[in-house]
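User: Could you go from structure to sequence for me? I need the amino acid at each position, not a summary. Structure tokens:
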């Protein structure tokens, strides 16, 4: 066996080297608990290169102190932007009619080479369009910053691809009380209407006031900006004009807005609240009595 031992180990080395080489296109993913899949380095996470199967036409608005990453000069890409661990809603435009698709699952694959299978999501069609959807997703806390592949898996076995730029949130605290704020959340919404102006009262947690302290790369900074909490109303086709976002305290917001055209029927909208710490979304239905659910 003495003369064959070096040959034996050499063969094992060659087998392990070539079986793990990125020059082989076949890959059988290893499933790990919590829906995380290892993706081999060097293969890339985006199978579609510089073009996308669907555009993210409307993103949540971000506070002014948040710097969004650049995606370069690739005009064909219209990715989304979201904080790690957040709950954003996007308006997307598909390359096929929205009435013709049935989304079964949604996956993310991050910049480090890990995929997150079957993340929680919710969709709704945008009225008076045949190619737009609203899609709300729950982004894992353990996803890496950078460009992530955003996959919609359809009931017919096909998939549609886009991208989301994952952004690291900022640690923030209230300047006056020195209280650190966690992820924002909306627990309850109520509304009233005065002529053409809607006023929505949002009750939740961790809304950011005008005066905050935030930490960027461990450097402490201060912000005195009334837009430390931003509000987005979707679908964008309604052209909602936000007149005022009144911060009462970290658990209460009042949002005043109007529509350029009167609503003629019950309409679903999504209220999205963004702070430097995160994003939260909640769907509402405006009925004839202007009751929000």
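Assistant: Here is the amino acid at each position, in order:
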């Amino acid at each position: 066996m003495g003369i064959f031992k070096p040959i034996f180990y050499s063969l094992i080395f060659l087998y392990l080297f070539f079986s793990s080489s990125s020059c082989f296109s076949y890959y059988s993913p290893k499933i790990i608990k919590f829906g995380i899949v290892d993706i081999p380095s060097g293969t890339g996470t985006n199978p579609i290169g510089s073009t996308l199967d669907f555009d993210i036409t409307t993103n949540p608005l971000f506070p002014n102190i948040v710097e969004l990453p650049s995606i370069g000069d690739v005009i064909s890409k219209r990715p989304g932007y979201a904080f790690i661990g957040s709950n954003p809603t996007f308006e997307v435009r598909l390359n096929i009619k929205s009435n013709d698709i049935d989304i079964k699952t949604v996956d993310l694959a991050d910049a480090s080479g890990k995929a997150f299978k079957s993340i929680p999501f919710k969709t709704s069609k945008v009225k008076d369009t045949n190619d737009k959807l609203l899609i709300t997703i729950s982004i894992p806390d353990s996803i890496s910053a950078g460009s992530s592949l955003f996959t919609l898996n359809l009931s017919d076995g096909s998939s549609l691809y886009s991208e989301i730029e994952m952004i690291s949130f900022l640690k923030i605290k209230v300047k006056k009380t020195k209280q650190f704020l966690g992820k924002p959340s909306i627990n309850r919404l109520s509304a009233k209407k005065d002529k053409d102006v809607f006023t929505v009262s949002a009750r939740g947690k961790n809304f950011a006031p005008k005066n905050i302290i935030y930490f960027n790369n461990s450097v402490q900074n201060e912000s005195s900006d009334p837009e430390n909490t931003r509000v987005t109303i979707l679908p964008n086709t309604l052209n909602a004009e936000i007149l005022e976002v009144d911060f009462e305290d970290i658990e209460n917001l009042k949002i005043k807005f109007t529509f350029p055209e009167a609503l003629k029927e019950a309409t679903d909208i999504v209220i999205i609240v963004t702070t430097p710490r995160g994003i939260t979304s909640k769907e509402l239905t405006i009925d004839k009595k202007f009751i929000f659910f």
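One structural detail worth keeping in mind: The first strand starts at residue 31 and ends at 32.
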